[in-house]
Amino acid sequence: MEQNFGKVIRQARKEKAYSQRELAKRIGLDFTYLSKLENSRADYPPKEDVIRSLARNLDLDEEELVFLAGRIPQKEEDLLKQHYKTMPALFRRIRENPEFAEKVLKEAIESEHKNTKE
């Protein structure tokens, strides 16, 4: 089943037994906005600090939730800006060559696993 930002935060909120009003109050949001987020009806993704607050209150991985919301974490955005001239070629190659994308992702995952074991 494909996950999206709204489904993930709704499921995690229910697992924590928070009402929308309760969670919204904990993170300083209007509960109607939280409802829009959960139902994928918000006009735009929330700011990174709101996403991170949701993640902390719901015991979710902050980085994953930021990406799932359609945002790029600030540190990754800074990296993209540093390499802004080469990024279009990289994304084009990933889009046009699924095998290349798989290889890059596989190597990134393997590297991540190595780093966490050390």
- Percentage of helical residues? over 70%
Q: What is the CA-atom radius of gyration, in angstroms?
A: 17 Å
What is the first-to-last residue Cα distance? 33 Å
User: Into how many domains do the coordinates divide?
Assistant: 2
Shape, principal axes of CA atoms? elongated
CATH architecture of the largest domain: Orthogonal Bundle
Q: Which structural category fits the helices and strands?
A: mainly alpha
Count up the helices. 8
Number of strands: 0
State the CATH class of the largest domain: Mainly Alpha
- The stretches of 5 or more residues where confidence is low (pLDDT under 50) are none
Strand coverage percent: under 5%
Largest sheet: none
Mean pLDDT: 91
- CATH topology (fold) name of the largest domain: 434 Repressor (Amino-terminal Domain)
**CATH fourth-tier homologous superfamily of the largest domain:** lambda repressor-like DNA-binding domains
> Which series of helices and strands comes N to C?
HHHHHHHH
Folded structure, characterized:
- There is one protein chain.
- The protein is mainly alpha-helical.
- It has two domains: 68 residues, 434 Repressor (Amino-terminal Domain) (Orthogonal Bundle), CATH 1.10.260.40; 35 residues, no CATH class.
- It is built from eight helices and no strands.
- The model has no long low-confidence stretch (mean pLDDT 91).
